[in-house]
Amino acid sequence: SQTIHQWPATLVQPVGSPLSLECTVEGTSNPNLYWDRQAAGRGLQLLFYSVGIGQISSEVPQNLSASRPQDRQFILSSKKLLLSDSGFYLCAWEKEWLDSDNYGYTFGSGTRLTVV
Amino acid sequence: KQEVTQIPAALSVPEGENLVLNCSFTDSAIYNLQWFRQDPGKGLTSLLLIQSSQREQTSGRLNASLDKSSGRSTLYIAASQPGDSATYLCAVSPPGGGNNRLAFGKGNQVVVIP
């Protein structure tokens, strides 16, 4: 079956520390993958997307980076966290939907990051 | 740039009432529209996807309609239950993927009162 995994679920990190969030998908190949951030009371903001291994596009300039070392693995990183990096981070996968020719999005369970 | 608006931002209804959640988008050139549910501190769960050629989709007590020409979608939840309390997000997808991805509304926060 096709699934998406994201971890950790929650994370508390001090300012200036590094970050690594991981997302993996199963049951598919060459998926389009996305990292979003959801701030409190606001909608989702697309941070990075990847259409293949080593291919990363950034939507907004920030303190974060992303990498895709394997086809089904997408990593969100930072060398030095800022207070403003706190938020809810979601990984998403664009997948074929319900045996149709259409594509929908499936999200991971999210990571709540608190920078202190 | 596509903008998605959801009204009302928050609402409370007594159990058993029907819920009507509205979503509007500024650019009618969409590939599909997707409704998600998000529980506090959780990820997004997809509820319904309506292709641009469709007018509505139904799943159980949920029905979503799409009027692409007027840039509107409505999510109906019949006979609401306390378990329906959550934030409901509407998202539209333009043709193609990549950086032309889903544009999300900020959500309708729903509380169903027992």
Report the portion of residues of chain B in β strands: over 45%
Shape of chain A: globular
Oligomer: heterodimer
Strand proportion of chain A, as a percent range, falls in over 45%
Helix content of chain B: under 10%
Number of beta strands of chain A: 11
Our measurement of the CA-to-CA distance between the termini of chain B, rounded to an integer number of angstroms, reads 40 Å
Biggest sheet record of chain B: 6 strands, mixed
Task: Please report the two chains with the greatest interface, counting residues with C-beta closer than 8 angstroms to the partner's C-beta.
Answer: A-B, 29 and 25 residues
- The H-and-E topology of chain B, N to C, reads as EEEEEEEEEEE
Pick out the low-confidence regions of chain A: none
Intertermini distance of chain A: 38 Å
In percent, how helical is the residue content of chain A? Answer: under 10%
Q: Output the structural class of chain A.
A: mainly beta
Question: Could you name the ranges of chain B where pLDDT drops below 50 across 5 or more consecutive residues?
Answer: none
CA gyration radius of chain A, whole angstroms: 14 Å
> Quick check: average pLDDT of chain A?
87
